[in-house]
Amino acid sequence: MNIAFWIISAVAVLGAVLAVTLRNLVHCVLALILFFIGIAAHYFLLHADFLGTVQILIYVGAVAILILFAIMLTHNVTGTDGPRELLGLKWWSGAAIAAMLAVVLTRAIQGDKLAAALPAGDRAQSSVAEIGKALVGGWVVPLEAIAVLLTAALIGAVVIALEEIRKSR
Amino acid sequence: MEEHLQQLARQQWLIPAIPLVAAAIQSLLPRRARKLSAGICITAMGLACALALRAFIATLGHPEAVREFYNFPWFEFGNTSLQLGFILDPLTAAMAAMVTFVGFWIFVNATGYMHDDENFTRFFCFLSLFAAAMLGLVVANNILLLFMCWELVGLCSYLLIGFWFHKPSAAAACKKAFITTRIGDVGFFIGILMLFWKTGSLNLYTTDGTGALQQIGTQLMGHGWFGWSVATTIAVLLFIGAMGKSAQFPLHVWLPDAMEGPTPVSALIHAATMVAAGVFMVGRMYPLFIAGGSVEQPTFAMDMVLYVGAFTALFSATIAVAQFDIKRVLAYSTCSQLGFMVMALGAGGLVPGQFHLLTHAFFKALLFLGSGCVIIGTHHEQDMRKMGGLRKYMPITFICYLIGMLALAGVYPFAGFFSKDEVLLVTFQRSKVAWGMATFAAFLTAFYMTRQMFMVFAGKWRGGEDQGHHNDHSSHGSHEPHEVPWNMWLPIAVLSLFAIGLGFFGGKYAHYLGAEEEELAGKSLVMGLSVAVGAFGILLGWVLYGRNPQAHASDPDPLESKLGGLFTCLNRKWYVDEFYEMTIIRATMACGTLFRVIDKRLVDGILHSIVWIVRGISQVCRVVGDGFFINGGFDAGCETVRGSGWGLAKLQSGRVQTYFRVLGLGTIILLVVYFLKS
Amino acid sequence: MNIPLGHYLILAAILFAIGLAGALTRKNAIIVLMGIEVMFNSAILNLVAFWHYKHFAVPTAQLFAMFSIGIAAAESAIGLALVIAVYRHYKSVDVDEMRALKG
Fold first, then answer.
1. Cα–Cα distance between B103 and A131 in angstroms, integer?
2. pLDDT given at position A75
3. Which of B142, B321, B463, B514 is most solvent-facing, going by the fewest CB within 10 Å?
4. Is the Cβ–Cβ distance between B141 and B86 less than 8 Å?
5. Could you tell me which of A31, A47, A61 has the C-alpha nearest to residue A123?
6. Where are the domains positioned within chain A?
7. Using the beta-carbon criterion (under 8 Å), do A9 and C11 form an inter-chain contact?
8. How far apart are alpha carbons B247 and B257 in whole angstroms?
9. Residue A107: is it exposed, middle or buried by C-beta count within 10 angstroms (0-12/13-18/19+)?
10. What is the pTM of this model?
């Protein structure tokens, strides 16, 4: 079973790297989709089935499409956008910061004895029914709140994008 | 008897206090309360006279000279206290009696003399104040009290000489009097200081023998200045004060000018009392003068007193010969007679000197009041050349004046004969030179008084020849002279009685003062010679002035034609005033100018340079400190802040990715720090 | 499976760093948003890993993760709407050109 972890991790990392590196925007989006699927697979591996499904549904199904639409609307489909002048100062500084952060976090994690914990006990599949009960039971307020939030975001996005269309007409 | 005298001594302070209270009351009266003011003044003087006579009579009853005194503390500082005191002894009692009695009659006369003056009330207020001060001087047992009254008397003299202050000559005269006597007072005060320093006491006599005059043997025989003893030094200094007050040469210049004051003032102050204060003071402090000396070898103080007095007597008499103002003649005569008194004291004759003081007070006051009557009677005429023949118009005045003149000239049996004779006798013992000067002065005295008598009372009236109009005072009648009312001739009549009879008490007075009778050599020679010179003086006066009295005012003086230039010199007072003007006064003015220049240039210059320096410093501070450092520093600080603001604002590049980078860097640093710590 | 928790955490850290690098480095605003999405996902992965190893009994972490996903989605929607709006104004999605708020 360990091998699954490594393969899925590799896929996810590959997807992420390609997503931030490729020149062609659409290729970036496709790589991003790959990354999302890798993360979803990790969720399944961690026995969070519902969450993995939700991940695919939302991220791959909505967010990626949204990004594609945004790309199309900004007329840089085949743009020669790419990474910064390679080996330029600004690129190196950004990359250095990211690398430093990775190193620091890795060292911190490795230094902690928590990191050596292993899953204890038998892992049964988690039940969707439990999640459902929790959502409308003790967690109904966050549920409603996020519903409001999503509504607000919807309206806001429409307003922001729409305004321009009106003005340009 | 002792208690009675002690009681009287304690009450001595009443004698000056009553006129002082009167002066205080009078100063508050309005100008129209003339009768009230005069009444208060004369009543107060009468009361003081009664008290003085009571004390005098009480001391008469004693077989030998008595001295009672009463001292009291005035104010205390630390352990010592400043004391004042009053004394009752023969000298004081006789002097107080004379001052109050003569003063009383002079006040009565003054009501007539000042009748037309609008400042009548003020005049009597000043007279009361003067009486209080003089009596305080006389009864004082304390040299400081004496000095205070001395100064007060000088102040009253100033006020009274300058009574008609709107006249420039009077204003100048009162200033001159005050300043000249002040010069003498410097010496007086230094003498007081030295006396206090050496003896530790300002009281003259105390019950426990610590008085200043009681310690002469112990404290004051050490070395003083110029090789004299301390007592002699103090005596010399005190005599300088007496020279100022009693108008001895060279401080005599104020006395003739003091005739600018009203005639009662001249009678009271400058004949009978104030100028006698110097002589009285020498008599009071006599033990200091004679300490350490003897008849054969007198102290320097005695020598100085003797020769100053003799010289003044002769000097003033020569000037009196050539004067035309009736009061000037009497003023120089006073000066001369004071010289006689001082000379007598210097010759060791305390009694003759004090006796002559008493007799002189009476007949000189008589003469001055008489001249006042003449002045009023001739409608304020003072020039003798414009008088004449007043014998017919003013008979009472004439007779009294004649008595006074004979007394002054030393004719037997009038008072002046006896007192002057004793003066000459005691001087003869001491110094033939001084005696010679005094005898010649006696001759001149007889001469000029005769001259005055003939010019004023004999011949015919020359006053109407003046072409110019008289001013307002003569509007009430003819221009002819007239006799004065009773309140003016009654006092001179009373005084003339004393001028006649006082002389016979000379021997008793000596005994009264406690001196022994001693037989002095040369008595007949001196007496004979003084009679002779007196007669010769009168004869010469008659020859020059009496035989052919001047017919007109513009006629030349007979003596002038004989002496020529010398007469002018005498008339101009030997040019002493001019000499002072040229030297001392000019020097003082030059000093004043010098100091003014120093003040303007040096002091103001220093002030201005200090100002300049301070302003310069402030300018430098402004430019450097304030301008450069503070303002510049402030501006630089502001520039730095603004520049750094600009610089820091550049951090806000507006680029999101830059912000992001900084954020990421910060996070990494925080994490590193956190993990390193834990 | 015997993967220690630390592996998951390091994986999440690496993914986060990759996302950060993308957000810091790229010129296109949309790619920056994509990098932010990557960072989001790595964080949620971290959360779920912890749930799996420690708190498996309650499903709270899954709810937490779902809410986070929802919020991330809303945020990306707004972000892209803003990019479109900015594009209409600037005619470009270059982040270097969006400097109007500079101090």
1. 142
2. 67
3. B514
4. yes
5. A47
6. 2-80+88-126, 127-169
7. yes
8. 12
9. middle
10. 0.64
Q: Are B310 and B353 in contact (CB under 8 A)?
A: no
Chains touching B, CB cut-off 8 Å, 3+ pairs: A, C
Q: Among residues B169, B170, B370, B191, which one has the least CA distance to residue B278? A: B191
Residue whose pair of structure tokens reads 């202050």 in the numeric block: B165
Helices marked H in B200-325: 216-219, 230-245, 254-257, 263-267, 274-284, 286-290, 300-320
- Output the average pLDDT for chain C: 88
Asked if B277 contacts B357 with a C-beta cutoff of 8 angstroms, the reply is no
Where in chain C are the domains?
5-97
Assess contact for B100 and B52: CB atoms under 8 A.
Answer: yes
Mean pLDDT across chain B: 84
- The answer for B 600-659 residues in CB contact with A (under 8 A) is 657
* Identity of the residue numbered A2: N
Q: Is B314 helix (H, G, I), strand (E, B) or coil?
A: helix
Q: Which amino acid appears at position B36 of this protein?
A: L
Asked if B678 has any chain A CB less than 8 Å from its own CB, the reply is no
Amino acid at A137: G
The CA-atom distances, in angstroms, between A81 and each of A24, B87, B516, C39, C82 are 7, 134, 152, 22, 19
DSSP secondary structure string for all residues of B464-519: GG--SPP-GGGGGS-SS--PPPHHHHHHHHHHHHHHHHGGGGHHHHHHHHTPPP--
CA B77 to chain centre: 31
Kindly indicate the confidence band of residue B545, based on its pLDDT and cuts at 50, 70 and 90: confident
Overall residue count recorded for chain A in this entry: 169
By C-alpha distance, the chain B residue nearest C27 is B657
ipTM of the predicted structure? 0.92
| Cα of C93 to nearest chain A Cα, Å | 7
CATH code of the domain made up of C5-97 = 1.10.287.3510
Identity of the amino acid at A26: V
B521 touches chain A (CB under 8 A): no
CA nearest to A69 within chain C: C80
Give me the numbers of helices (H) and strands (E) for chain B, helices first please.
30, 2
**Does residue A132 contact residue C56 with C-beta atoms inside 8 Å?**
no
The Cα B177–Cα B261 span in angstroms is 11
Paired strand residues for B72: B84
* Predicted local distance difference test score (pLDDT) of residue B113: 86
Closest CA to B283 of B488, B127, B90: B90
Mutation for C interface: B644, B655, B659, most C CBs within 10 A: B655
Amino acid of residue B408: L
| Contacts of B84 by beta carbon, 8 Å cutoff, 6+ apart | B71, B72, B74, B140, B141, B142, B144, B145
What integer pLDDT is reported at residue A33 of this predicted model?
Answer: 96
Q: Where are the alpha helices (DSSP H) in B542-575?
A: 558-563, 565-571
Burial track B336-361 (b if 16+ CB lie within 10 A, e otherwise): bbbbbbbbbbbbbbbbbbbbbbbbbb
> How far is the alpha carbon of A81 from chain C, nearest alpha carbon, in Å?
7
- Cβ atoms of A160 and C82 within 8 Å: the answer is yes
Q: What is the mean pLDDT of residues B302-312?
A: 90
The DSSP line for B171-208 is HHHHHHHHHHHHHHHHHHHHHHHHHHHHHS--BS--TT
Q: What is the DSSP letter of B214?
A: G
- Is it true that domain A2-80+88-126 has CATH number 3.30.470.20? no
Residue B635 C-beta-side C-alpha neighbours within 13 Å: 6
Does residue B240 register a pLDDT over 50? Answer: yes
Please give the sequence-ordered ranges of beta strands (E in DSSP) within B282-413, or none if there are none.
Answer: none
B53 or B625: whose pLDDT is higher?
A: B53
A67 pLDDT higher than 60 = yes
Q: Which pLDDT belongs to residue C103?
A: 65
Q: What pLDDT score was predicted for residue B471? A: 46
